[in-house]
Structure formats: C-alpha cells, structure tokens
C-alpha cells in the first residue's frame, strides 16, 4: 500500500507551541507511525509545487491522509478537484480534524461541513458506537484525550454510511468524531482529533485508529464501471 | 407550501415530438398536477433572467422541482451555487430524470452522478422497496411504464439515506430510481422517470410520486443551527 | 389517528416518589399531552386482561407508545408477538426509555438492546443531529434535562435508519437517544428520556418530541405487499 | 480463520436432480472452494447431534455459512438462539439463498424476511451497486446466472447497512441480492443465489463472492462491551 500524508505545514513553522510538539511537522509524525508492514509512506505539503500532489503522486497513492486548517483557501481549485476525482476513482482518503473544512472534503460531502468549536482545553472522551468496525480493532470502549479543541454538533455533513465514534466534551457538547463515507469507488474516513497545539498524534489509540483507517480505506480491486450509452443485454427487438 | 417547478425548456421548442407531448413545456404539465390543497405553484425556466431563480424566488420557494438535460452547462455557476445553499438552508428539492447530471445535484452529491443509458423504448417496472415511505402512499407494489429511456447501474451517487424504488428494464438492467438524501436542513428526492420523448408525466402513478415527493421534501420548521466559536455550557474552569 | 399509550404501571403504585410525580400513571400523563387535533388517545396497562392489547385494540391502533421497565418478563410472549406482527403490518411504535429492554423492541431489533446505566441525577443534554427530521420540528439545537438516569454507549441496537438525537451526560457518557427504524410496513421511534423518578414527561420539549414522533410513525396508506409463489410479469416461455 | 459451513442436507438425499449436482451435499461443494490461505473449513448438518453446532463448534467458529430450505422448522429453537447469540458476540454469518427464512436470520432481522419466488428457469443478472465494497473484489460490473429461481421484491428485511448487489430477473422482477447487516459485534452477509436444482455454487463469480463475504464477515478483534450499572467517569458529586 502506498500512503501519502498531506499537511498544510504552516502552524509548525509559525507558532512555537506547535513547533515544540511537532518539530518536523504533523505529517512527519503521522508518517512515522504509519510505516511498517508493506506500506510505503510519503509526505506532501502545501508549499511544495502543486502542493506536492502531482498527477504522478496521486496516481501512485492508494490512501491519502489530509491535515489542513488555516490555509484551506490556498489549496488551488484544480488540485482540490484532481484529488476529489482520484477519490471517486478509488483512492482512499482519511481526513483529520480541521480538514473538515478543506476544499476536498466539502466537495465530496456537498454540505457546508460547519460545526461548533472552542479552544479551551476540554477533556474529550471518544466512545466506540460500532464495535464491528475494523477501524476499532484493538481499542477499548473509548479513547480518552486529556485536552483537545472542542468540536460540537450540529456537524453539517450528510448522514455517514457508518458512524464509528461519538465524542463527549467536558463543556457539554457531543460530536460524531469518526464517520465513513463512500464516494464513487473511494472510501473516506473522517476522524476528529488532532488540534495542532496538543500532542494528540502521539496518543497510542489515536495512532491505532489512523493506522486502521488507512487500512480500511484501501481499495484492493473492486469493479471499474462503464458509463454512458449502452447496448441492451437482452433482446428487446420484438416489441 | 410554495412550489417552484424549474425546467430547461429547450427540447419542447426544438423537437416536434416533444412539442406534441408537452406543448406548453414539461414545467407546465408538472405544475398543473401539483396544484391543489394550499399549494402555490410557480414555474421558472433557463432562458428567463437569472434562469427565473432570483434571490426573491428562492427565498419564497419551499420545494423546488428540477428538470434539465441538454443545457446543464448553461446554468450559471452562481445560480447553481445559490440553489445549493438554499437547499442546505432548508428548501426541499425534487430532481427528475436527467437532472441527475445538473450542476445542483452533482454539487449536493459530491460524486459524478454518471450512469448507463439507452433510448430504445425499454419497458420499465419500478418496484417499491420501502413500503413505509410516505412517498409511496397510494401506490401498488410497482409502477409500470410502457416505454422509457433506460437508466442503468452503476449509478454513481452516495448510498442514499433511503432507497424507495428500484427499476427493472426490459434490456436487462436495474436502477435505483427513487432515492432520498438529506443535505444540511434540506431534503432531496431523486426520481428517475421522465424522458422528454415519452408522455411519462401524464402517468397517474408518476404524478402521485411527485406529489408525495414534494410533500415529503417540505421542511416545516426544524431547528436552525449555530456554528462557530462556542462558549462552554458546563463549567470547565477548575481544571 | 388512533393512539394507544401502553404502560407497565407498577412503579407508580409501589414507589411513593413515583406516585407523587405521576399520580395517575405515566400513561395518563402521556395520553394527556397527545390529545388534540383529530387524535383519539387510549391507554392500556400490564395488569389489564391481555395487558389491554386485545386483537381489537391493536387493529384499531395506528400508533402505539410503550413504557415498561421492571416487569418486561410479565408481558406474555403471545402478546409481544402480536404487537410485533402488528408493527410489521403498519402500526407505528414509539418506544420510551427503559422500553429498550421490552420483548417487543428486542424482537424487532434482533439484538440484545443492552446499554450502560446509572441513577445519579446526571444532567442530560440531548443534541439534535438531524435538523431535517420532522421529529425535531419546533425544537432548538438541544433539549436540556436537569436530572435524569444516565444511559450510555455502547447501546446494542442495529445502526438506526436515522439518528436524530445524541445525549451528553454529566458523568462522561454519550448515547444515541433518538433513533428511527423501519420494520416491515411499520415505523419505530426509540426515544431515551423518561425515568420514573423524574418529572421528565412534563418537560415541554420532551412532550413535543413524543407528539412529533407519534405523527411521524403514523402510516397513512403505503403499499401492501404480496409474498409467495409469483407468476412472471414478462414472457419467459421462449427460452 | 475457522469457517463452518452448515447445510440442511436433505434435498441432496431425496431429489436425484440435486444429488447429481451436489453428490456430497451443498456444504461439501462450498467448503471446497473456501479452503486455502490459512482457513480451516469444517461442515455441519441438520441431522447431526445438536445439528453439528455444539457450544464447542460455535466457540471455535469465526464465520458460519448457512444454507437451509425445507426443514427450517426442524432446527431446534435453542440451537437457533445459541447461533444468534454467538453472532451478537462477534461470529460472522453468511446466509445463502433460502436461508432468508431460517430461524437464525429472522431472529437477527426482526422482520418476516418474506419475498416473492418462482421456479421457472429465469435468467438472473446480479448488478454491483457498491463498487467500493470488499465483497465485490475481483468481479466485473455484474454476475450473470443462466438459470435460477426468481426471488422478487418486496423483500421484507430492515434497510441493509450496505446494499451490494441488485438482481434483474427475466420475468420482470428485481431483488436486493447482496446486503450486509451488523448485529451486536457480528457481521451478517445475505447472498441470494443458490437454488438446489441449479449448479450455482460451481459458478466462479458466485464462489468469489462467498469467499469475499467470509473474509469480510470475520471480526479480528474489535472492542468487547461492558453493559449494566456504571460508575461516573467524571465528577458529578458537587451538584
């Protein structure tokens, strides 16, 4: 499996708090815990040419992981459109945290993807609500994160195909924190945690979920579809 | 309820076969069978200014019915975007037949919305697969249409929230012909039949479904959401 | 619409705390706020003959509301089975609170319907996660209940057809508190609140949800199905 | 993975047509094409003691495949109940063809599971409608079966979690032929084809689907749930 981890990579260069936590960028941290088995893991970032997402990179990516926040608007429309098309053609997509507002995710969802939020060190407890789901393999009944940004309902997404995690926040809110969506031949997993000012991506259970999510999103060879004008398969001539 | 029936209104002016069937346009035919009860039904067409879909018209529309085919590209992007936003804000949308390829529907679905098709006078039999659904009120177990254009799977849409009708076609194909989708505060119903060269919109059961669909799609006052930065509802100060 | 409110009616006779809150039984309280419009509302209780659910009562019930808790086992199997069959045949069912463990609900779900619980005066905040749903008509973004029994995930139900409410509890849990399920021609709405030691059914928003739920569950005439050996609808003789 | 293939094994002993096709029983045919990789495949049949499904066999089965037809009633209630509980506890279940009417499947669905049927050598064409699903790996856009028993809608099941295949039948019907359901910690796949008088289980694509289905249904270690009275995870003492 070929994995590409995409990161906006701005907070880490501009905010010392974030630099301390992720000195080589969130993408490098994520790439490291995704390595292993037969995975080839590469990274790409906003300020590279074509945001590091050339046709060749996309064609050779089985699953793309996406982290973005403050610079969604700087992602070129044509790149966002190419990524979306590649998902429809079978590439898996794991969208993390503030990636809910990325051009790619909004295009795939068709909704505003808006939500409530607060940066106030809320405790988060993420409950498994689908204990059949391979994304929950190896977890307990919930994941607890000591401090995180709050995301609250209403989360303006289509009803997910599968709802995997629900979050409880100390300040009184709930959130659909893990959700899957099929689009074309591609599988999309949205996973909430990962605000840049917290060391969330070092949390073992969070890592486990992303490892599982990438594995789940990988399309190993389902049917390709033919569209357009189509000859009858049965005789309809004698009407 | 305020209903607006939108039609591209081109085939009827250019193809005598279609003119004979719908002399005053498909929109007029549909508007007529939607009248009654307390409904106010208006129409709008592509060649009117702003395609007949001004801010005022949209603000005063509870449910929009959409028929388009050969001129999807002529619908201005800003109008398509406004219609989409109005759906997310609570307007119902009933998309008919070749409207599957309209800008509005594709934006709301996030997929290509592509399919197989054939104009060969196939017989269509549309089976009810959800006999709890209010859209099926008053129907029998299936609707039979003597001749129609074939639409076949794979239909590249997200898994519908509710699958209501499945079509059988004489030439050997099947199709998810009636499907509902929630987007934001808006309800969307896609309904397959209605190729312009057949008198499908005079079929009593087809009319019944569209009447039911409009009624179902009408949002009578569900909660408005507040998004963005949000104060805690519980005390989190003593951490 | 003919509504029957069924109640176990035991706590109210045995526990003075409950008697004080619901002196004439939970069923009477619920029946009162369901009256109005063209509704005919009746009640039935466990200790009546056939638990008040004779064939005639069931045949004349469009929507059944169910509250039970400590005496689920005393409901006769044949009555539970008859109620289930009537749901499959089109009767709506609104299952409240501890009714999650009733024979009828478990038969319709096929799962254990188990959950976590605690009686400790938790505050509950029930968030609307589906703001298109008619069951949420007239509500705000959430319903707050000062003190309630806690119900927590994992709730062992099939993935609901529609998830309407999610609860936050003070003690750290979440719960899928409002969920819809279609079974046969019947519509089922599970709604969490209503522990007998709290005055929950006097809460205006809780009443509104149950009123909306009953209206939603009413099947106004969808297709009846024919099953079994079936003649071909198309000629298959010349193979 | 430990697989057990269960078969009623009656038609093969009583009807020479079936004996000719499956001389060692349908279970043996299925077991043979499921062998390989690290799978251990065993069989069990109705006339064995406890129908071959002792506690030990069930405890050591990861995925159970079920074929039954004329003797559903002879399956003991307590065995059916044990199998159901084992599914809720994580065992995968692949239900084939007339197994739709088995006690186990009906208990898990909560509906009648009724349908239309006809034995008239209809041609069946099973279309893939979910080209992301691992159960469709290695297939084309449809599977064609020259002659099969017809199963037609309405199929009285809950709306599936995932709809994978839709069948077209020569006589004019359609059917939801491949559908998945999650129940408790168990995954259930219903797959339509396989009437005993046709050599359907020698069809390479049918075999591929069952191989994929077994692999999909295998639960490799998702969370076990704790139910019942539960201590608060957050401090609620100072209210």
UniProtKB/TrEMBL annotation, chains A, B, C, D:
<protein>
    <submittedName>
        <fullName>ThuA domain-containing protein</fullName>
    </submittedName>
</protein>
<feature type="domain" description="ThuA-like">
    <location>
        <begin position="3"/>
        <end position="217"/>
    </location>
</feature>
<dbReference type="InterPro" id="IPR029010">
    <property type="entry name" value="ThuA-like"/>
</dbReference>
<feature type="region of interest" description="Disordered">
    <location>
        <begin position="220"/>
        <end position="239"/>
    </location>
</feature>
<dbReference type="InterPro" id="IPR009381">
    <property type="entry name" value="Trehalose_catabolism_ThuA_prok"/>
</dbReference>
<feature type="compositionally biased region" description="Polar residues">
    <location>
        <begin position="220"/>
        <end position="232"/>
    </location>
</feature>
<dbReference type="InterPro" id="IPR029062">
    <property type="entry name" value="Class_I_gatase-like"/>
</dbReference>
<dbReference type="Pfam" id="PF06283">
    <property type="entry name" value="ThuA"/>
</dbReference>
């Amino acid at each position: 499996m070929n994995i590409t981890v995409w990161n906006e990579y701005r907070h880490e260069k501009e905010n010392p708090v974030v630099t301390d936590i992720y000195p080589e960028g969130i993408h490098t941290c994520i790439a490291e815990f995704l390595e292993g088995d037969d995975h080839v893991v590469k990274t790409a970032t906003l300020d590279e040419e074509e945001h590091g997402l050339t046709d060749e990179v996309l064609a050779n990516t089985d699953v793309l992981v996406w982290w973005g926040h403050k610079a969604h608007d700087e992602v070129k429309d044509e790149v966002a459109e190419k990524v979306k098309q590649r998902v429809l053609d079978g590439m898996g997509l794991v969208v993390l945290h503030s990636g809910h507002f990325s051009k790619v995710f909004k295009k795939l969802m068709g909704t505003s993807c808006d939500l409530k939020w607060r940066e106030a060190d809320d405790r988060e407890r993420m409950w498994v609500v689908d204990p059949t789901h391979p994304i929950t393999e190896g977890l307990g009944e919930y994941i607890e994160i000591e401090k995180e940004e709050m995301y609250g309902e209403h989360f303006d997404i289509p009803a997910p195909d599968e709802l995997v995690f629900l979050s409880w926040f100390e300040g009184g809110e709930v959130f659909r924190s893990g959700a899957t969506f099929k689009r074309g031949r591609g599988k999309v997993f949205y996973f909430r945690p990962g605000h840049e000012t917290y060391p969330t991506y070092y949390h073992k259970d969070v890592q486990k979920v992303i490892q599982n999510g990438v594995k789940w999103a990988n399309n190993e060879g389902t049917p390709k579809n033919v569209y357009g004008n189509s000859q009858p398969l049965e005789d309809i001539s004698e009407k």
